[in-house]
Amino acid sequence: MKLVKLKYVKQYNWKFRCWLLRDINRNRKGRVYMKKYLEVIGILTLLGIVLSGCSSMSFSKAIELDETEKAAIGLIEEKGYEVVALGGKSEAYELDRDRLAHPNYSLIWGIQDLNAEEYIGKFVETYEFLVEDHPLLLELDDGAYRIKLWVLSVEGEIIGGYTFPDYDEPHYGGVYSLEGETLEEVTEMRFQAWRKGWEEKYQPSKQ
Questions:
Q1: Residue 164 contacts by C-beta under 8 Å, 6 or more apart in sequence?
Q2: pLDDT at 69
Q3: How many angstroms separate the Cα of 57 from the Cα of each of 10, 20, 45, 190?
Q4: How wide is the angle at C-alpha 129 spanned by C-alphas 174 and 74, nearest 5°?
Q5: What is the model's pLDDT at position 113?
Q6: CB neighbours (10 Å) of residue 135?
Q7: In the chain, helix, strand, coil percent, each to 5?
Q8: What is the reported pTM?
Q9: Separation CA 109–CA 111 (nearest Å)
């Protein structure tokens, strides 16, 4: 999913306009000059409105958020992280035991502070963000300078999320909690013991 940067620069040269107005005041006797200056100002103003309008439309479209995304950003900012880019809805699925048994999803749901059993059969949406000022960066110090953060939502309610460093090159490994904690830190269990219990609970044969 392509991330949309939250950057906006209004392109309009107010200094040049002020310079023209000062020059007009210095040449009050020359009505012809004033008329020409006003024409120039009018053209520049019109051009500025057009450029500003186009930029505003583009910016508004780029940050057009649904209510769930707004809630997710609010949660992220409450934790003290800065959202620098939006990835939008990156995934949507119905949670079932087969998915929970899959290695990738077991890690994601294993670090949540909730009972995954309660969400089986429900529709889950995942929203992606790029954030700065995350504590995980201080712990890693291995080339990553931003953190990818995903928020999990069920029926419009934020139920959790997970994070992973934003590396330039592909990296592999388990995801972290929203606060940057490992699965072992969240569950207070060694990984092998946790995995054994998880597989026994969510293996596909137990449906």
A1: 147, 148, 175, 176
A2: 93
A3: 12, 29, 18, 51
A4: 115
A5: 93
A6: 16
A7: 45, 20, 30
A8: 0.68
A9: 5
- What's the half-sphere exposure (Cβ side, CA atoms, 13 Å) at 28? 2
Amino acid, single-letter form, for residue 114: L
Instruction: Using CB atoms within 10 Å of the CB of residue 184, give its burial: 0 to 12 exposed, 13 to 18 middle, 19+ buried.
Output: middle
Within 10 angstroms of residue 95's Cβ, the number of other Cβ atoms is 20
The DSSP letter of residue 189 is S
**Contact (CB, 8 A) for 191 and 184:** yes
CA 62 – CA 175 distance, rounded (Å): 28
**Cα angle vertex 135, ends 155, 63, to 5°?**
45
Amino acid letter, 108: I
Residue linked to tokens 């029926």? 155
pLDDT recorded at residue 4: 52
Amino acid at 196: K
pLDDT value of position 33: 44
Q: Cβ–Cβ contacts within 10 Å for residue 180, how many? A: 19
List, for the chain, all residue ranges whose pLDDT scores fall below the cut of 50. 1, 7-62, 206-207
Q: Which token pair is 154? A: 């069920």
Q: What pLDDT score does 35 carry? A: 46
